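forwarding from the other thread:

> can someone predict this with CO-5-methoxybenzimidazolylcobamide?

sure thing
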Amino acid sequence: MEHPSENNLQNIIQNAKTFNEIHSGDISLSRLHVSDMIEIGLVTEGKGIHKILGETIECAAGDIYIVGGGVPHGFFALNEKEFPTVQLLSFNADECLQGEYADIGSSDYCYGVFRDNSLISYAMLSSKALDEISNILLMLKKELTNKKERWQTAAHSYLILLLITVSRYINMAQTQTPIRSKEWAAASEAVRAVLERYSDSELTLESIASSLYMSKSRLSRIFQREIGESFLDYVRNVRINRACSLLKNTTLTNEEIVRSCGLKDIPSFYRVFKAVVGQTPYQYRMSHSAFNRLSKEEATTSILNDICDNMQIGKNKNVKNLVELAIKAGIPPKQILNDGLLRGMSIVGVKFKKNEIYVPEVLLAARSMNESIALLKSEFEESFTNFKGRVCIGTVQGDLHDIGKNLVKMMMEARGLEVIDLGTDVSPETYVNTAIEKKCSVICCSALLTTTMGAIEEVVKLSESAGIRDKVKILIGGAPVTEEFCKKIGADRYTPDAATAAEAAVEFCSMQIN
Ligand code: B1M
């Protein structure tokens, strides 16, 4: 087996850029997510779980792992008390290997966990390097016997690199700080600026470049070469890394996290987070141990916030999953509706008004709302006793908004009423004819536009001319509708929300039955 040449070793050392201590979690999100990086880690203390490529294995002090860049993995706490502490070293494999040992960036990756006294060997390498290398190589051979050949070659190379790099790195750290080039200094300065100012969403490469008296394009090139990834990717990863830790350790809302991490807005946060981490912020929070330690109240807030956020970005599937989860978690349906769904929809309304979002986005939110209402329906039904009575409901002529109407319908059905749904854009004739034919006790009119409120008055007038006004009650509502308006047009009752509307309908029906 070939060993890396002395020249390559110099490169390895020069490229060993990060050597820091991490506690449980964020390795997969560090800036090592670059295909030409190799990441080497040593579990120095404690024990925990190492999740890698779908596998979950226990890890403990003394384990060494090596992965090619871009291999998703991370460390997690075993329980509340036990966290693995991992020392991490990364370097640019492409430069070190110069193509001799493995096709970096190909689908090949390398992964090894080495038990025994590796930690000791790590500490003592500078004096006993050769002995330890051969010991570990023997162990590695055992590990590799059942793996495919290319994997073995790459793994061997990486392991050798690990041992030599670590030993050189330690030697180097013990003797002197290496002299770095001006470029390295500039790149380090940019890294420092990012770490200090990532929460500022206005942070730009341009501003850092000008503080270093260099052009933006030059700093961009230097950054890419020295740090191994683009400035933008680096900033993004720092922010997402921070967001992970906030999701894990706090109950901040996504909006607060977006703000404190300098991210643009919720939709881009979700997009970028999913792309980098492979999970939604919610899934990440849920799957992380810290979330499980949240109190019931904190978990409730977190789920409801996520419902609200996902409503705003039209993630219908997420909203439904979250609503189902909220139901399972025992959150009262009323709270799911008010603090999750309706809160989200009202933010959608504000953004729509300000032209920050447009009809397609609103329609997506509307779909989430309607489908979630359907999920909640059975939950509401359980809370009330059955009562019989028949009503018809619709959104008035010229008006296509149906969410409020659907909510009212759901609440009424939950109270045991039979509800004939006439849909949207309902003409006065349809209301009145239905009331006559189906013997409805109540006509329910919903209107969401100021311009369609007048259509309610038409229903009242037509019911009078059709001779059913004394037999049927007219119940009205919708955002622009008011008590005053109700009185003015001679309807029977205005209610501001769906639950009160259902109560009123029950009351009217019982009056008719009695
Ligand atoms: Co429209 N829209 N919309 N919209 N839309 C509003 C209503 C608006 C306030 C947005 C805004 O500018 N901020 C504005 C109306 C302004 C006004 O007239 N005062 C508006 C406009 C202008 C329009 C269009 C004209 C936009 C355009 O095309 N340029 C257009 C009109 C289309 C039409 O109807 N002909 C339009 C279109 C749409 C979409 C199709 C994109 C979509 C509707 C999808 C759907 O419903 N399937 C939509 C949506 C979703 C909204 C907002 C964002 C949300 C409405 C909603 O569902 N809210 C809304 C802004 C907002 O309200 N924040 C807006 C949640 C729902 C649960 O509340 O319906 O008020 P709501 O129901 C409440 C209560 O009012 C009450 O109970 C519910 C709470 O428990 N309630 C009743 C309702 N009906 C009741 C009946 C009762 C009793 C209580 O007794 C019978």
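The radius of gyration is 32 Å. thats all i got for now
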